[in-house]
Amino acid sequence: MLPIKTDLAAIPRRDLPAINERNRFFWQSGEDGKLRFTRCNVCGYYIHPSAPVCAKCRSRDVEPAVVSGRAEVATFTINRQAWQEGLERPFIIAVVEIEEQEGLRLTTNIVNCSIDDVYIGMPVQVVFDHREDVWLPLFMPIIKGES
Amino acid sequence: MTKILERDAAITGAGMSAIGRRVNQPAIELALDSITAAVEHAGLEMDDIDGLCTNPGVSETPGMAPVPLRDIKNGLGLKLNWFSSIQEGPSTLSSIMTAAMAVATGQARHVVCHRTAIQYSMIKQLKKDPLPAAAPARRWNNWQGWAYPFNALSPIHSHAMITKVRMDRHGLTREQLGAWVLNCRRNAQLNPTAMYREPMTMDDYLSTRVISDPLCMFDCDAPIDGSVSFIVSSLDAARDMKNPPLRIEAMSGAMYGKDSWDQFEDITSMPALDAGAHLWERTDLKPSDIDVANIYDGFSIQPIIWLEALGFCAPGEGGEFVASPDQISLEGKCPMNTGGGQLSGGRLHGFGLLRESCLQLWGDGGDRQVQGNPELALTSVGGGALAGCLILSRQ
Description:
The complex is a heterodimer. Chain A is mainly beta. Chain A has one helix at residues 24-28; strands spanning 16-17, 35-40, 46-47, 62-67, 70-79, 91-98, 105-109, 123-131, 134-141. In chain A, 3% of the residues lie in helices and 38% in strands. By secondary structure, chain B is of the alpha/beta class. Chain B has one domain (5-122, 222-394): 3-Layer(aba) Sandwich (Peroxisomal Thiolase, Chain A, domain 1), CATH 3.40.47.10. Chain B has helices at residues 27-41, 69-76, 94-104, 119-128, 142-147, 155-170, 174-188, 202-207, 235-238, 272-279, 301-309, 318-323, 341-345, 351-362; strands spanning 9-16, 51-54, 82-85, 110-118, 139-140, 210-212, 215-216, 225-234, 246-252, 292-295, 376-381, 388-394. Strand 1 of chain A pairs parallel with strand 5 (139-140) of chain B.
């Protein structure tokens, strides 16, 4: 789905996750433009944050699996406070629910979207913000005919 | 039949240091002040203390847990039969709950539980030297690693998003949140140690600065410095002590859903849902039996969630409940956050709320004393991925 014209630079200041062996695949998944979650090979359950065991069937046979990158805005907030120097605001913080599984969610930003246009239930798709060794999964509205 | 062994434990004393934003004391001194006050209040000598407990023991959050147990143990030369610094547990109340288990099993007779924080001083210090916009990205573990990269830099963001989805699904309104906030402020005006005591109107509430939609400045509690301590004693030992023992009728830190700020199964709630339901499995009492309640209000949305979770009202009706005039006020059916809560009283991470429950049961509520000689008090603590609650019963 790349390239997509984005306004990611509108939020210049970002802290980053500490990368470890368990979460490396997740935070670097966007290098090829695809979003991945750990998935159970036995029952198909997506496990997030990643764990070496399936919380549904307790199988240890789990591995990263590509998902569609489509999601829905489960809820959101417009941040208006300057928590740090260089934080451009307002901006949208959201929890999105990944299409593949109910309750599989990410805290993220909605980008390429006016703060007046975002709504609960809005269909969105992943877009990655590459910083250092991390590809942060952000989400943008799905425009009809483009998905 | 499950044995309810927490009923063999009681709170027998409570103490508080100076609290607020002009305290200007090192954290260890605040802890020593509140511990000494609690021991004296219980009518004990320091040498009677044989247990020590806190939660959290250490924290990455500046000023959140500045006093390790060893500094208290060594400083006071305590001879401890049992001690525990709890890192992962169901809210700061987990120290009280664990201490109750220690005295109920005979590991200790009198346990000090302290909660000490200097978040105000630490935030003030950090503000003097802000991180430049061009500074390299900081790296984060734990829940911060899932939130901070998206500039969800405060717990307000998670709580604002719960509020948003509740407005969408349940018709929750800002006026209903404001009703809780104003009740806290009215009670704080009667509490000499509360942080904010100026009168507040609904217009004041609705017109103040929005931090993260739909939550405004008055929806957030205020960081302060301070320490609160309790003595948790075995009920046998408590019977001959200075204060009427406040026996633990029931307690719960149950968590069935995911331990997470954004993966908890019910997006309108948090683990309060599990602890709140489990609490009533340990007692024949009902919410309508409770005489006074102090419900966690680090953010104004939390009591709405807690009151539904605890069964004071039906799911989705928390907003209507708190806005109804005859429910939570000092004259209401069950007065709540009688000392001003955390929203007007200051952030003592639930220990201020538990202390207020104790004061009300001992009849020490001063101008804000709940009428009718209250015997049963419920305290709930926690937001985000943390939740614990307990009922105290004056003997």
